[in-house]
Amino acid sequence: MRDIVYFDLETQRSFNDVKGDKSKMGVSVAVTYSTKAGKYFVYGEDEMDALVTQLRKADLVVGHNHMEFDYPVLQKYTVLELREQTVNLDTMLDLQEITGRRWKLDAVAAGSLGIGKSASGVDALKWWQEYLKTGENKPLIDIAEYCAVDVKVTKCVYEYGVEHGHVKIDDGSAVPVEVAVSWK
């Protein structure tokens, strides 16, 4: 069985906090789903080696903007060049190449699946700050749950595209935009 690993991470700091230097954002929580294992994996900042190993072993890593966001954030934790040492399908970059526009995961999920995300990256940053202040695990659990939902939504969007040969994007008009994809 092919091991498709769906991937997302949340950061400790915002893009503005680090003046655009993604390598300084830090990982709060990362989540993957492995089709081979049939389960989710949650990684804390001290487990980035295990995450990198899983991504490198995957037959395909699927994410939404992971090539231009998640990998640059994760890169500070490894000497390996993730972009070159992994096989990737970035749904956002693929859709951008086809349509000439960057689409949010929320828009693709709403159009294709009729669902949206459960929270936002801003919420995850607030939860991280709450964790730092209180030391309680609940904010970390909230981040992990949010990140896991994003992974599941990415998985469902990818599977929809594979099954139908297209995805639909909610661009705010009455009818979602249909975009042909050749995901395998």
TrEMBL record:
GO terms for molecular function: nucleic acid binding. Residues 5-160 form the YprB ribonuclease H-like domain. Pfam families: RNase_H_2. This is YprB ribonuclease H-like domain-containing protein. It comes from Roseibacillus persicicus. It comes from the Bacteria.
